[in-house]
Amino acid sequence: MPNPTAAMLVIGDEILSGRTRDANMYHLAGALTDHGIDLKEVRVVSDDAPAIVAAVRALAAQYTHLFTSGGIGPTHDDITADCIAEAFNQTIDVRADARKLLSDHYEKTGRELNEARLRMARIPASATLIDNPVSIAPGFTVENCHVMAGVPSVFQAMVQSVLPLLSGGAPMLSRTLRIERGEGDIAAPLGELAKEFSDLSFGSYPFQNDGIYGSNVVIRGQDPIRLDTAFASLTALFPQ
Amino acid sequence: MPNPTAAMLVIGDEILSGRTRDANMYHLAGALTDHGIDLKEVRVVSDDAPAIVAAVRALAAQYTHLFTSGGIGPTHDDITADCIAEAFNQTIDVRADARKLLSDHYEKTGRELNEARLRMARIPASATLIDNPVSIAPGFTVENCHVMAGVPSVFQAMVQSVLPLLSGGAPMLSRTLRIERGEGDIAAPLGELAKEFSDLSFGSYPFQNDGIYGSNVVIRGQDPIRLDTAFASLTALFPQ
């Protein structure tokens, strides 16, 4: 049975302006691979409601799961929750369960649960909450869409909360051979090998630095024995 | 006049599997901001022809420019050039100008211009070449789509070759204030300020590490005087 598929939507001007280097995509990609869910597409859009709604609808329709990051805090530019409600044609309001999480937390820390912070309890009607052990304000899941924070430590905690609840397939395994030869020299035999093991995926990722160049050849698949067999053929083709 | 817009398409399984952390998106985002071109959307897709063709068509139609990275090397998984030709309904073959660049280069370095390397001279019929001072094999521009390599050093060199040829608008300027207070405490006055300066964009990017939390508030705009005025109001609102 093929693995479940996934897309990710990163929401926020800070990535598109070059201010911030993305960390969440890299983290989620690795976590999904380990869990046996195939990440097929990522999109990054700005804090713009029509762009967010359109991307959520397109990606949620096309893949088993959609994971979003960013835009669920208390400030004016945090519009993700409202956009998700619109994309799934749901109402959204401050919800008692989320409000209680926040009021308990702010009571303990002596801070005020003001109107801005209450925005973080705005949750679409049918959503289930995603636990946030780092800073309490929850993420949420609507249908197949998992809505998480943009701050990397919070994002990672939410991924850890939600991922065990999702069925995964066989984890995608990989073996990598570093070959210090030009890609042009290895391309023909490598292409033949990829054809011979057409049930596996072969990628060639060239590098060059400090005058050394070559390629990391990565074989991916779910069957460890096939992977070992293919890797043995690869190392025989390109002895170090 | 509004700035030209852009999208980026990152092509390659290695980002989606979590093997590689993207560097090209971060580099291009910064370079475009400096050049006065607004990066509006990024997509990452795997080495899958239908997915690449569909994304190229959608993004090239929607934005002034499309920049792609990855998939133009000599190995079997390098399918970008053929996908670009298909997306723009053009023929593609080994082209004399690109072939000459490669044959001159390999003659000098004593390596063989074999069939695999010749794949890097496959260029769509109407394309103009993008200079690659690092490893010679060129990128190319078809209509509004700029096709570049995935290896970061080569990608960056190609960006430097192509960007000066494109008209940019006024560079987007930004000022950042680090505020060590909870986002929930600054949200209301910040929202008011954002309304007052509605010609500028206000973003709040929370952080928390080592027990210190707060937010970087970023104001963006093209008019330096407006930006200074808004930044003065911001610092008055949140004195350090």
TrEMBL record, chains A, B:
InterPro entries for this protein: CinA (IPR050101), FLAD1_M (IPR056596), MoaB/Mog-like_dom_sf (IPR036425), MoaB/Mog_dom (IPR001453)
Q: Which SMART domains match?
A: MoCF_biosynth
CDD domains, per the entry:
cinA
Q: Where is the MoaB/Mog domain?
A: 7-169
Q: What does UniProt give as the signal peptide span?
A: none
Q: Which domain of life is it from?
A: Bacteria
What is the protein name for this chain?
Molybdopterin-binding protein
